Structures are given as C-alpha cells and as structure tokens.
C-alpha cells in the first residue's frame, strides 16, 4: 500500500480481529521521545510532536517512490500498522540521533521517527531503550483547540500512558492523511502539519465516534482492551 491510498474499511490496519494484514510480515514504526530528567517535555506537546513525526515520515522523499525507505514503508503499511514509542536521554538520545531517521521538534518535545523495522529486528541502540517511563504531565493548562486546526480527539474514558497515547495520536494522524483528498493533503503538508491533540469531553465523545470521521480501534497489544476506540481524527476537510 502506498501513501496515496486510503485504507479499506474491511481490512483496517488497526482492526483488532485477524485479517489479511496479519498474514504479511510484520513491521513496526519506531518513535523515540527525548525525556531528560531535568526538563521533560509537556505531555500534550509530546503527543502532537509524535503525530507530526508520523506525517513527516509518511511524506519524506525517502519514504515514497524509489526512496531508500520506500520498500520498508510499503511493507509496514501492507501489514498491521504498529508504532512503538520508547524514551531516551543523554547518551541514549545521541546514539538514537546517529541512526537514520527524522527528528521533529515541538515547543518542548523532541521526537525522532525511524523507518519501519521488523518486529524482531530493532537496531541495537533502539532495542535497549525503555518503553515504560513515558508518564508526562502538562505543567500549564492546555488551551482549547483552534476550530480551524485538525484535532486528534482522545477517548476520555481510557487512561493511557504518554507513550501509548503518542502512538495512538500517530495512528489517528495517519488515518486522517489517508482519508484526505489531494488538495487538502498538499495544503496540510505545505503548512507543516499543524494539529492539536485533545481529550474529548465525555458528552462529546459518542458523537465524535458516530460522526463518520477516521477512528482508531486499538488491536489491544498493550495497556487497553482490543477493539477500544482510542482516537477520532477531525480534519476540517474530512467533515
């Protein structure tokens, strides 16, 4: 599957039950968030930066056509779409930065995204990084999202670690990208992928899920039950 195709609803990459995607070799998109002890990033900024990192990877010239990462990207998207977020600091982060990938920065967050790797074929310097310990907070109140900005709405009833939520936000951004018409894609790309990640109000969540927007239903590998709806991607061009 190339980046310019939408995902058939009958074989969603995030659907929890087995399908044709499970028969393909499985790959994972690694994301590493920089969490220094003295200056951890704000949670919402980390989520938004991770989502943008996924979009940057999807559209990088190395990921499409005959680019050096294109085969890995196709193999990953033809199978179950998996993303794993790990944390790094100090020398760990410097080693991660030395590997082929893209670092995306937010207001306080730095996330490096790497081309997909086989489930059991992580580079050594990434495999040794911890998945746990990505519990982050927002030190300041998070303002309401701009109505003109694409919003990735998180399920208010699910308690997810920041790392898990970063991966889910990335899933939502990817589904939004797949669902957009070409003109809207070009505009979003040219603007640098502005987006917001917010937790939906409990009263608003049922309407978002039922509204026909791209929806992530988690496969249940970690933290939450299979089939849980984690993110609704609300891009103005998809309404």
Automatic annotation (TrEMBL):
Spell out the residue ranges making up region: Disordered.
1-22
Please give the InterPro entries that the UniProt record associates with this protein: Pep_tRNA_hydro_II_dom_sf
Which UniProt keyword terms apply here? Hydrolase
Output this protein's name: Peptidyl-tRNA hydrolase
Tell me a Gene Ontology molecular-function term this record carries: hydrolase activity
Q: Record's Gene3D superfamilies? A: Bit1 (3.40.1490.10)
Bias (Polar residues) occurs at 1-10
Q: Which organism is it from?
A: Streptomyces calvus
């Amino acid at each position: 599957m190339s980046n310019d195709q939408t995902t058939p609803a009958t074989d969603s990459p995030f659907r929890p039950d087995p399908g044709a995607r499970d028969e393909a070799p499985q790959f994972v998109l690694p994301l590493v968030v920089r969490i220094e002890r003295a200056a951890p990033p704000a949670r919402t900024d980390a989520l938004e930066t991770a989502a943008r990192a996924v979009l940057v990877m999807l559209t990088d010239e190395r990921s499409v056509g005959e680019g050096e990462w294109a085969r890995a990207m196709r193999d990953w998207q033809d199978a179950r779409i998996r993303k794993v977020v790990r944390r790094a600091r100090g020398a760990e982060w410097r080693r991660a930065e030395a590997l082929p990938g893209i670092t995306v920065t937010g207001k306080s967050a730095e996330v490096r995204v790497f081309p997909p790797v086989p489930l059991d074929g992580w580079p050594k310097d990434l495999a040794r990084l911890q998945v746990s310990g990505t519990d982050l907070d927002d030190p300041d109140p998070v303002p309401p999202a701009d109505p003109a900005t694409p919003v990735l709405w998180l399920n208010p009833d699910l308690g997810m670690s920041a790392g898990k939520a970063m991966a889910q936000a990335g899933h939502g951004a990817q589904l939004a990208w797949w669902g957009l018409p070409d003109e809207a894609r070009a505009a979003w790309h040219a603007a640098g992928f502005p987006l917001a990640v917010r937790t939906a109000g409990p009263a608003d969540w049922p309407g978002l899920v039922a509204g026909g927007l791209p929806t992530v239903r988690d496969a249940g590998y970690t933290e939450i039950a299979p089939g849980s709806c984690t993110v609704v991607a609300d891009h103005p061009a998809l309404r």
